[in-house]
Amino acid sequence: MLHLRVVSPPEHTEAVVAELREHPGVAHVVFLPGAAIQPAGDVVEADVAREAADELISVLCSLGLDHTGAITLEQIDTALSDAADRAEESAPGDGADAVVWEELLARTGEESRFNATFMAFLAIACLLAAVGVITDSPVTLVGAMVVGPEFGPLAAIAVGLVRRRWDLVRRASLAIAIAFPLAMLITAGGTALGSAAGLFDASALRGEHEVDFVFDVGPWSLIVALLAGAAGMLSMTSAKSAALVGVFISVTTVPAAGYASIAAILGEWSRAVESLAQLVINLVGIVLAAAVVLLLRRATWTTTDSGRPLSNG
Q1: Can you name the residues that pair with 6 across neighbouring β-strands?
Q2: What is the pTM of this model?
Q3: Are the beta carbons of 71 and 4 closer than 8 angstroms?
Q4: Residues whose CB falls within 8 Å of the CB of residue 201, separated by 6 or more in sequence, listed in order
Q5: Rg (Cα) of the chain, in Å, rounded?
Q6: How many Å apart are CA 64 and CA 62, to the nearest integer?
Q7: Do residues 236 and 158 lie in contact, with contact meaning Cβ atoms separated by under 8 Å?
Q8: DSSP output for the chain
Q9: N or C: which end of the chain has fewer CB within 10 A?
Q10: pLDDT tens digits, one per residue of 106-119
Q11: Which class is domain 2-98?
Q12: Cα–Cα distance measured from residue 278 to residue 217, given in angstroms and rounded to the nearest whole number
């Protein structure tokens, strides 16, 4: 269930209340006349079955409430109510399969921004990957994959392409284009310091190692990236968010960036180039598969894009 709160100008409140009272996927409608101060108006609240949310948002946006008032949604973890149970049973479809498109746009828009926190996580992930490569530790590489925050902007690019939100595509692409080179420069600097301190040398990359899959480019690189991108987007558009952890562990983006940084500093240029190729294949594969998943779910679209500018948060 989702908790819906609407701030409505008085002239639209009757239509809002009527829509919520009549919809079978809605329970616990609350009307607070004149309760809103800024923007001024009435407050209407309700609990909504997830599979009914997209349709209701479409109706509310058609009244212009996203411009003259406000529409907010929150996840409800527990609802002990026969009325809520009836609403979920009456709403068409299954809650786990329902896509709330405005929620998806808001979420990917939030995760697409380049900021200090995003940069810090990516730099730390690349440094962890570098340590994993030098010590030949697959476990450390897995840790780097989990820490890496890159799936958010990649998902945002896919959403922007499918929904034709070019502002979202530009912002997410800029985040990736700036953050990865910076993280790799930081990793290269750390590698140079470690090498100068005598912690390791070029022999650390020579021979066969358990982490050689990082630069070993082949058809499986693309296959894994496509599967991970599809799983990640399915997770973001449904109620199965726990699957994202598996996506992070599957893709070889951060490890490839870390390996390329080390190889360049230690003069292993062929491995540096192969690692960069691995990085590009994974980035493109994830975006492509995520976009395909969204296109396949086109039949569930009920809301038109409001075209609202992305928050700078």
Answers
A1: 44, 71
A2: 0.81
A3: yes
A4: 195, 266
A5: 23
A6: 5
A7: no
A8: -EEEEEEE-HHHHHHHHHHHHH-TTEEEEEEEEEEEETTEEEEEEEEE-HHHHHHHHHHHHHTTHHHHSEEEEEE-S----HHHHHHHHHSSS-GGG---HHHHHHHHHHHT---HHHHHHHHHHHHHHHHHHHTT-HHHHHHHHHH--THHHHHHHHHHHHHT-HHHHHHHHHHHHHHHHHHHHHHHHHHHHHHHTTS--GGGTSS--TTGGGT--SHHHHHHHHHHHHHHHHHHTSS-GGGHHHHHHH--SHHHHHHHHHHHHTT-HHHHHHHHHHHHHHHHHHHHHHHHHHHHTGGG--SPP--PPPP--
A9: C
A10: 778 777 889 999 99
A11: alpha beta
A12: 6
- Confidence check: pLDDT of 186 > 60: yes
pLDDT (tens digit per residue) in 209-237: 888 888 888 898 899 999 989 988 888 88
Counting every residue written for the chain, the total comes to: 313
